[in-house]
Design goal:
By secondary structure, the chain is mostly helical. It has helices spanning about 15-25, 30-50, 60-70, 80-85, 85-100, 105-115, 120-135, 155-160, 170-190, 200-225, 225-230, 235-240. The protein has one domain (about 15-240). Helix 1 (about 15-25) packs across helix 10 (about 200-225), helix 2 crosses helix 7 and helix 6 crosses helix 7.
């Protein structure tokens, strides 16, 4: 992984992490959580098949649609992307993002600033989905439910110590900073057990999705009506949805 020199420190609030996992296991069985990890691996296999270097030249609207189907925040945005970008430019930018020679932050910033039609939140999310599910051993997701640069909220904020700072002036800088936090959570989670739900970064992302779901349940059950709470999906479904694997059969 990019930040393999980082060692475990006290930046991860392990007590909070265990509390979130304990609450999650009250709302989902171990087999349901393991299933999410398996779905993520299958999603990754799809991305790797479509986006391997030798296949990107053949990327067309149909294949792109197959990928967007499994990106929760983006699946309804494909038509906007295609209206504002040619397939040639999309192929070129994806190839550069995934396999370019420049530093990660440079490639990330180029992609998010060059792809047209999507707002900053969506372009940042798209870039991270492409990176993580094509190279799950190297990269990570950066969606608002994981970290929201504007509010400083998201799953990571709930399990990092208050004095830990995710920072950066550009989307690429922030993405790299999130990567540092992700590695610390992964290392602490593997050591202490709260991210062993699935292997490697899959387990970390399933755990963070559970953190998000538990937080959502807590907030909505307090603030919203009983009628609205009835339409909230159960934790396994909510976690599958934000990870884009709800419809991924295994």
């Amino acid at each position: 992984m990019l930040y393999d020199e980082i060692t475990i420190d006290k930046s991860v609030d392990s007590e909070s992490a265990h509390e979130f996992l304990m609450e999650a296991t009250k709302l989902a069985s171990s087999s349901e959580l393991e299933d999410i990890g398996l779905r993520m691996q299958k999603k990754s296999a799809l991305f790797q098949a479509v986006l391997q270097p030798s296949a990107i030249a053949d990327l067309n609207e149909e294949k792109l649609k197959a990928l967007f189907k499994y990106m929760f925040f983006l699946r309804r945005k494909l038509s906007i992307l295609l209206q504002n970008n040619t397939m040639e430019s999309i192929r070129n930018e994806i190839a550069n993002l995934l396999y370019g020679d420049q530093d990660l932050d440079v490639r990330y910033n180029r992609f998010t600033s060059t792809i047209s039609g999507l707002n900053e939140i969506l372009s940042v999310s798209l870039a991270s989905e492409l990176l993580f599910f094509t190279h799950p051993e190297k990269y990570w997701l950066m969606n608002n439910w994981i970290w929201d640069p504007k509010t400083k909220g998201g799953s990571l904020s709930l399990i990092l110590q208050n004095d830990y700072e995710i920072k950066g002036e550009t989307a690429g800088d922030i993405y790299k900073s999130i990567g540092e936090a992700m590695l610390m959570v992964t290392q602490a989670g593997q050591r202490e057990g709260f991210s062993r739900i699935a292997s490697g970064l899959y387990g970390t992302h399933v755990f963070l999705a559970c953190v998000y779901a538990v937080y959502m349940f807590t907030v909505f059950k307090i603030k919203l009506s009983k009628e609205f709470n009835r339409i909230l999906p159960e934790l396994p479904e909510l976690a599958r949805r934000v990870l884009g694997v709800q419809k991924m059969e295994i």
